[in-house]
Amino acid sequence: MVRQVVSLYKFRVHALSVFFVRILVVSLGVLLVPLESVMAEETHAADPPRPAPVQPLTRLASIDQEVAKAIAAGKMPGCVVLVGRVGPERQDSDILWFKAYGEREDGVPMTTNTVFDLASLTKPIATACSVMQLVERGKLQLDDPVARHLPAFAAKGKQDVTIRHLLTHTSGLAPANPLSDFADGPEAGFAAMYQDKLRYKTGTYRYSDVGFMMLGRIIERASGQPLDRWFATELAAPLGIDMGFRPDAERQARCAPTQRRGGSWMRGQVHDPRAWALDGVAGHAGLFGTAAELSVFAQMLLNHGAVLGGDKGRRVLKKEGVALMTRSLVVRAAAPRVAERRRALGWDAGPGSSNRSDAYSDRAFGHGGFTGTGLWIDPVRNVYVIFLSNRVYPNGEGSVNPLIGQIGSITVEAVDRED
After folding, report:
1. pLDDT score, position 418
2. pLDDT tens digits along 106-130
3. Are 116 and 289 in contact (CB under 8 A)?
4. What per-residue confidence (pLDDT) applies to 93?
5. 257 preceded by a cis bond (ω within 30 of 0)
6. Which of 3, 39, 202, 331 is at a distance of 20 to 30 A from 183, taking alpha carbons?
7. Which one, of 108, 107, 56, 62, lies nearest residue 85 by Cα?
8. From the CA atom positions of the chain, what is the Rg in Å?
9. Nearest to 172 by CA among 141, 203, 215
10. CA nearest 230: which of 133, 320, 345, 369?
11. Element of type H or E holding 108
12. CA triplet 402, 405, 408: central angle to 5 degrees?
């Protein structure tokens, strides 16, 4: 697969050349990634070359202090932070900050090419984008009743729930279903969910993994292939990245572990128990990726659905599709701590989200993941913030959402002051 390099440069370089460039940069004192991390990365011959930024936005340096405090407080073992920006003419992109911190696991340094369980980032990146592609190709409509594609879903008064309701978490479905539903396998699990009743009034907001499991199944029915295969061929391949479900052995070796399951560390195995019961591929969780891969994805969205980089002009989504998917909508909460929320189709649009900076523009959109991941994109400033951690390692007690919001605020202040 063609691999896309995310960098300040306008050309591709061989991995060996990149290594010597990095060594030179170290001597000049401007390399952001620790040298031991760089050396660890270069041991993987299959890794894409990934130059470090040579002119980082120095006002972002306070990210170091905030991350160090979080690691010292036991909020996470380590993380990777990437801040990027797409140029005003959308002909190029800048990586303003790209750094690995702390450890991947006990005694193993975090590296910038670490593969993470992205958890609920699966919802907007894999599921919502796949739905929008199928809408553009005439296979789906946003206001299709779910039962048009999954007839058994209509049971117990769910016949009026639409795809749009699922994407905005306004279906009225339960947040999650009992794990016992999957005791006899994935099909038995879906059969049980089809027979479940609505728990809230359709049209009111209540975050639901069940709704996105339904979307994963709808994508399979409409496209004629499983979600993981559709994502690999229609999203990852055009972007030139290896992000995807069920990582292979090479990527598993670079995965940040989460917790133990059955006595073994989950490393390249999805942390979410329902996605695990669905063989690692589900509409709500299961995607694995690196910060550099997410950067390519974010650049595509800021470029209105077209690939930015070596395959410029190749379109993943139509401009109108990206605008529709990321437009902020007001939704009323079913059981609120706040009276209303702002969502987009598959995306969080804040404010009020614990990992969203209040400094972002009203058009910003993003999402978080239970394992300690976050992606926020601000199209007014053409910037994006990627934060990846395995905060659940080793005992599930970490906490990073406030830190993700702080990094967003640092980014906005730095970019605004530069302008």
Report:
1. 81
2. 999 999 999 999 999 999 999 999 9
3. yes
4. 83
5. no
6. 202
7. 56
8. 21
9. 203
10. 133
11. strand 108-109
12. 155
